[in-house]
Design the sequence.
Protein backbone atom coordinates (compact mmCIF):
# COMPACT_ATOMS: atom_id res chain seq x y z
CA UNK A 1 0.00 0.00 0.00
CA UNK A 2 1.42 3.38 -1.00
CA UNK A 3 1.39 6.11 1.62
CA UNK A 4 2.91 8.95 -0.38
CA UNK A 5 2.80 9.98 -4.03
CA UNK A 6 5.41 8.51 -6.33
CA UNK A 7 8.48 10.77 -6.46
CA UNK A 8 10.08 11.94 -9.69
CA UNK A 9 13.39 10.30 -10.53
CA UNK A 10 16.51 11.98 -11.90
CA UNK A 11 19.80 10.53 -13.00
CA UNK A 12 22.78 12.88 -13.21
CA UNK A 13 25.71 11.14 -14.89
CA UNK A 14 27.97 12.15 -17.77
CA UNK A 15 27.68 8.61 -19.16
CA UNK A 16 24.60 8.48 -21.43
CA UNK A 17 24.65 4.67 -21.47
CA UNK A 18 24.41 4.53 -17.67
CA UNK A 19 21.53 7.02 -17.84
CA UNK A 20 19.64 4.77 -20.27
CA UNK A 21 20.32 1.67 -18.15
CA UNK A 22 19.19 3.41 -14.94
CA UNK A 23 16.08 4.78 -16.66
CA UNK A 24 15.15 1.31 -17.91
CA UNK A 25 15.70 -0.27 -14.48
CA UNK A 26 13.44 2.35 -12.87
CA UNK A 27 10.86 2.17 -15.67
CA UNK A 28 10.64 -1.62 -15.53
CA UNK A 29 10.38 -1.80 -11.76
CA UNK A 30 8.43 1.29 -10.70
CA UNK A 31 5.18 1.60 -12.62
CA UNK A 32 4.34 5.15 -13.66
CA UNK A 33 7.74 6.61 -12.72
CA UNK A 34 8.67 9.98 -14.21
CA UNK A 35 12.37 9.96 -15.11
CA UNK A 36 14.67 12.77 -16.21
CA UNK A 37 18.29 12.21 -17.17
CA UNK A 38 21.10 14.73 -17.37
CA UNK A 39 24.62 14.37 -18.73
CA UNK A 40 25.38 18.01 -17.82
CA UNK A 41 25.16 18.58 -14.06
CA UNK A 42 24.64 22.32 -14.55
CA UNK A 43 21.42 21.63 -16.49
CA UNK A 44 20.26 19.29 -13.73
CA UNK A 45 20.86 21.94 -11.08
CA UNK A 46 18.86 24.49 -13.09
CA UNK A 47 16.05 21.95 -13.50
CA UNK A 48 16.00 21.12 -9.79
CA UNK A 49 16.03 24.78 -8.79
CA UNK A 50 13.12 25.67 -11.08
CA UNK A 51 11.00 22.52 -10.74
CA UNK A 52 11.13 21.86 -6.99
CA UNK A 53 10.97 25.36 -5.51
CA UNK A 54 7.24 25.50 -4.77
CA UNK A 55 5.57 24.08 -1.69
CA UNK A 56 3.28 22.07 -3.96
CA UNK A 57 6.18 20.54 -5.93
CA UNK A 58 6.41 16.79 -6.15
CA UNK A 59 9.24 15.04 -4.30
CA UNK A 60 12.25 13.89 -6.29
CA UNK A 61 14.91 11.23 -6.00
CA UNK A 62 18.26 12.00 -7.60
CA UNK A 63 20.89 9.41 -8.46
CA UNK A 64 24.12 11.42 -8.69
CA UNK A 65 27.43 10.23 -10.11
CA UNK A 66 30.63 11.40 -8.40
CA UNK A 67 33.16 11.49 -11.23
CA UNK A 68 32.03 13.81 -14.02
CA UNK A 69 34.15 16.18 -16.11
CA UNK A 70 32.31 19.51 -15.86
CA UNK A 71 31.14 19.37 -12.24
CA UNK A 72 31.85 16.48 -9.91
CA UNK A 73 29.09 15.08 -7.74
CA UNK A 74 30.75 16.85 -4.80
CA UNK A 75 30.56 20.20 -6.62
CA UNK A 76 26.89 19.54 -7.44
CA UNK A 77 26.29 18.96 -3.72
CA UNK A 78 28.10 22.21 -2.89
CA UNK A 79 25.73 24.12 -5.19
CA UNK A 80 22.71 22.20 -3.89
CA UNK A 81 23.67 23.13 -0.32
CA UNK A 82 22.96 26.78 -1.21
CA UNK A 83 19.47 26.07 -2.58
CA UNK A 84 16.48 27.38 -0.62
CA UNK A 85 15.05 25.01 2.01
CA UNK A 86 11.80 24.37 0.09
CA UNK A 87 13.86 22.90 -2.77
CA UNK A 88 16.02 20.80 -0.46
CA UNK A 89 12.94 19.47 1.33
CA UNK A 90 11.62 18.01 -1.93
CA UNK A 91 14.85 16.37 -3.15
CA UNK A 92 16.58 13.23 -1.88
CA UNK A 93 20.04 12.66 -3.34
CA UNK A 94 21.66 9.25 -3.56
CA UNK A 95 25.23 8.97 -4.77
CA UNK A 96 25.43 6.30 -7.49
CA UNK A 97 29.04 5.71 -8.33
CA UNK A 98 31.49 3.18 -9.66
CA UNK A 99 34.08 4.58 -7.25
CA UNK A 100 35.50 1.93 -4.96
CA UNK A 101 37.30 4.61 -2.97
CA UNK A 102 36.28 4.15 0.67
CA UNK A 103 36.75 7.87 1.33
CA UNK A 104 34.08 8.67 -1.29
CA UNK A 105 31.60 6.43 0.48
CA UNK A 106 32.52 7.91 3.87
CA UNK A 107 32.23 11.46 2.53
CA UNK A 108 28.81 10.72 1.04
CA UNK A 109 27.56 9.21 4.31
CA UNK A 110 28.80 12.26 6.23
CA UNK A 111 27.05 14.71 3.88
CA UNK A 112 23.70 15.83 5.30
CA UNK A 113 22.22 16.28 1.80
CA UNK A 114 22.99 12.69 0.76
CA UNK A 115 20.44 10.03 1.66
CA UNK A 116 22.61 7.08 0.66
CA UNK A 117 25.54 5.74 -1.32
CA UNK A 118 25.05 3.06 -3.97
CA UNK A 119 27.60 1.33 -6.12
CA UNK A 120 26.76 1.14 -9.81
CA UNK A 121 24.82 -0.51 -11.34
CA UNK A 122 21.34 0.40 -10.25
CA UNK A 123 19.30 -2.78 -9.86
CA UNK A 124 15.89 -4.13 -8.88
CA UNK A 125 17.23 -5.15 -5.46
CA UNK A 126 18.63 -1.67 -4.77
CA UNK A 127 15.33 -0.05 -5.77
CA UNK A 128 13.45 -2.60 -3.64
CA UNK A 129 15.65 -1.77 -0.65
CA UNK A 130 15.16 2.01 -1.06
CA UNK A 131 11.55 2.15 -2.23
CA UNK A 132 9.72 -1.00 -1.15
CA UNK A 133 6.31 0.70 -1.48
CA UNK A 134 6.86 1.56 -5.13
CA UNK A 135 8.71 -1.36 -6.67
CA UNK A 136 6.58 -3.74 -8.74
CA UNK A 137 6.38 -7.19 -7.27
CA UNK A 138 6.58 -10.05 -9.73
Sequence:
Amino acid sequence: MKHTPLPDFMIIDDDPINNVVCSKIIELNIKGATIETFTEPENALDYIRSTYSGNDANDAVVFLDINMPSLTGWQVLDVFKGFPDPVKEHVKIFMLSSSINFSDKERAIDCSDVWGYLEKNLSYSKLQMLFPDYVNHA
In short: The two ends are 15 Å apart (CA to CA). The mean pLDDT is 92. The domain at 21-130 is CATH 3.40.50.2300 (Rossmann fold).
